[in-house]
Amino acid sequence: LTFNPANVSAVAGDTITFTFQSKNHSLTQSTFAAPCTKNGPVDSNFQFVSDATQLPTFVLNVTDTTPQWFFCAQTNPVSHCNMGMVFSVNADPTSAKSFDAFQAAAKAAGSAPGGASQSGGASQSGGASQS
Question: For the region Disordered, what residue ranges are annotated (predicted)?
Fold first, then answer.
């Protein structure tokens, strides 16, 4: 249960396209402090994939370089967030609020609200680099 890549560096004007693969996942905005709780306007809703030929996508428009935090809200049969299925934009790996710290907090958190390889992929366009 992962987003790949799990952290992306982006600048204002970039877009990040998520391609949902296998089963039923979401991209849901949260905060660093509460990684498995919806907080923010971004929510792809659940993207059910019934076969490998039609993979749904969701585009995230980056408006600034502030770190942003996301998770998969699926809880059936287990919380994907608590399993570490989280994603960040512009998380500083040298900061106390790194992606690794965010993922550790998600794994330690209680059950995510919301609705099971189980991965979603992100690609981006614009001038940003992926990490």
Answer: 110-131
In terms of DSSP bridges, do strands 86-89 and 7-8 run parallel, antiparallel, or are they unpaired?
Answer: parallel
CA distance 25 to 12: 26
Q: What is the pLDDT of residues 18-73, one digit of tens each?
A: 999 888 999 999 999 999 999 999 999 999 988 777 899 999 999 999 999 999 99
Ordered by where they begin, the domains of the chain are 2-125 (2.60.40)
106 vs 78: CA distance, rounded Å: 13
Nearest residue to 30 (alpha-carbon basis) of 84, 70, 79, 85: 70
Between the alpha carbon of residue 17 and those of residues 26, 44, 61, 96, the distances in Å are: 13, 11, 9, 27
Q: Which of 29, 34, 30 is nearest to 61 (CA)?
A: 29
Alpha helices (runs of H) in the chain, residue ranges in sequence order: 99-108
Q: Which structure tokens are listed for 9? A: 């560096």
Cis peptide before 93 (omega within 30 of 0): no
Model's pTM, two decimal places? Answer: 0.82
Cis peptide preceding 67, ω within 30 of 0: no
